[in-house]
Amino acid sequence: MSKDCSICGSKIPPHTTPEGVVYWEGGHNAEPYTSGRCCDLCHGEFVLPARLKQMREERVWNTKK
Predict the structure, then answer these.
(1) Each residue's pLDDT tens digit in the chain (65 positions)?
(2) Where are the domains of the chain?
(3) With contact defined as beta carbons under 8 Å apart, do 38 and 31 qualify?
(4) Could you tell me which residues are beta bridge partners of residue 44?
(5) Which SS3 state, helix, strand or coil, does residue 15 take?
(6) For 10, how many CA atoms within 13 A lie in the half-sphere containing its CB?
């Protein structure tokens, strides 16, 4: 059962081995960009940068204590 990306709305394709065997159909965790699951493209374009930004902000905040 394919799910829709919570960011772009497209169907999340399953991850497969080179032989075509499906090993994961759940997409990626879209936090902290949004709640839900996301596709590979949105994970790289939106979610990972949001996580890196969050980590930098937390590091700056922790050094100001």
Answers:
(1) 679 999 999 999 999 999 999 999 999 999 999 999 999 999 999 999 999 999 998 877 777 66
(2) 15-63
(3) no
(4) none
(5) strand
(6) 11
